[in-house]
Amino acid sequence: MHEMECRVLSIQSHVVRGYVGNKSASFPLQVLGFEVDSINSVQFSNHTGYSHWKGQVLTADELHVLYEGIKLNNVHHYDYVLTVCDPVLGDHGSMYVPENLHPVYKNKVVPVADIITPNQFEAELLTGKNISTEKDAVEVMDLLHKMGPDTVVITSSDLPSRLGDRFLVSLGSQRTLMPDGTKSTQRVRMEIPKVDAVFVGTGDLFAAMLLAWTHHYPNDLKTACEKTFSVMHHVIKRTISYAHDLAGPGRKPSPPQLELRMVQSKADIEDPAIVMEATVLNL
């Protein structure tokens, strides 16, 4: 008996050099046994954090044509569509995307998503509610559930960590349909060590890993989050130590030196040692 293969259509940016968008998501998903079909929404030489970048942006029509080709061959049946409707709206109080895209995310994208991974700023923007306590965060996640997604992970927040100011707080909530037709919600909290470096592609890796681990643990958000955050920890730790070795003592690593050590982390992606524990919130 063949195990049914799991297919993902990943619609994200592509870079020739380095790891962001599809380059950040495809390899780890493939390592975990997923078939990944990629549509590259942009094709750049490298991410835009470098001094220079060149490349092309796919128009909506060009994207549609590619999908049309898959459809004509009747090979457009996917278990998951991964788009970094992360939703990548902004961070630290400022928006990355034009204001007029905000209602598109809110009214069109979020309602059809199963899983969303906003940061605190994006979660507040989508719900119109501020988060200053854990209770606020839970209410915001409940509002996001009402908008459509059954799994919500607020990847980073400004809430005070129980472990001190060197940690960020991340919160997750998963709504599950019970056999009797009622919905049950599991909520988890994680304390994440802060890292003093700017990485690109980590959000894309995070979304891909959460997809993979919620697929493997469909009703166990605690385990899915522990695996996902542990993969992130291993990849980031390896990347930082490599970047510092290259840069030399006392020197700040450059964007090329901080490209994620993805291939070198293959074993950690496949079977991460759990270094992050999630606590289940009993509210």
Task: Describe this entry's structure for a reader.
The chain has 283 residues and is an alpha/beta fold. The protein is 36% helix and 22% strand. The chain is built from 8 helices and 11 strands. The strands form 3 sheets. It has a 5-stranded mixed β-sheet with strand order 7-8-9-10-11, sandwiched between helices. The chain is globular. 37% of the residues are buried.
Main pleated-sheet profile: 5 strands, mixed
**Unreliable runs:** none
* Percent of sequence in beta strands: 15-25%
Mean pLDDT: 92
Helix run count: 8
Distance between the first and last residues' Cα:
43 Å
Sum up the overall morphology in one term.
Answer: globular
Query: Would you report the number of β strands?
Result: 11
Q: Helix/strand-derived class?
A: alpha/beta
Q: What is the gyration radius calculated from CA atoms?
A: 19 Å
Order of helices and strands: EHEEHEEEHEHHEEEHHHE
Walk across the major sheet and give the strand order: 7-8-9-10-11
Helix content: 25-40%
Task: Please provide a brief summary of the model.
The protein has helices at residues 22-31, 60-72, 102-112, 120-127, 134-147, 202-216, 221-247, 266-270, and strands at residues 7-15, 35-44, 55-57, 80-83, 90-91, 94-95, 115-116, 151-157, 167-177, 183-193, 279-280. The protein has 283 residues and is of the alpha/beta class. The longest helix has 27 residues, at 221-247.
